[in-house]
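User: For my dataset I need records formatted as: sequence, then structure tokens, nothing else. Please produce one.
Assistant:
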Amino acid sequence: MTIQEVKDRWSPGMKDPQAAIDWWNSKAGAFASRDIPTAQSSLAIRLITEKQMLERGQSSLDVGCGGGRFSFALEQLGACVTGIDFSPRMIEECEKSRIARASSACFCVQDWQNIDLQALGWKNKFDLVLANMTPAVVSADSFLKLSEASRNWCLMVKPTRRSNSILDKLNSLLELEADTNSLDEALLYAFELLWLNGKKPKIEYEEQQWENSWKTEDAVEEYTLRISSSHSLSSYQKEQIKDFLHRESIDNVIKETTHTTIAAVYWQV
């Protein structure tokens, strides 16, 4: 494939941007309460440390920073960190944590898909650009921006080959294509773009299993918003989601198991 062919194929699949923002807003409190990742608990931090991607005093951009925990982890490594996310609630939580930690990290609401790096003065500004487990990179253009913002290292971490005990059943019930297909394609397209641009990307993998549980009504909101972000749902389909989750619940609780292969792609610009 040519670069243009990859761009034509790898385009944003988000059907309802506001549903996506609402979904991630709803997760802000839980994300902010998670532990700061270390080289022992995180593939991304391990690679940054092992490959010496950052030196003390250098700059890092955390794309799709969520609750800010990776931004704070990068700061602990000595970096001057900027974290961005399209969810206002996530950035609010980042600011709360920044104040509580007396952190020097900078956080702001930005949509990476539509960001203007030139206007912000971010072209080739950062020594490391990190996009860890974020939906911010959803197209060829948003992927290529990682390299455009970096002057040395880039690291993108994404889940692939993902199965979900509840979501898979819902997709089947609603006769929808699983959003996991786009995750698998993203890894292939990312490598192709880097190779065509003369880079020598490396990839490492890690198997993970996640367990989550929600009260049934919370699960209805969770899955409705999640599926709405990538598919246009009718009122009938939303009722199907609600009915299915009430049938699946045990003691008014929905338990979910996710299996995934985490893929980390890293390269120098």
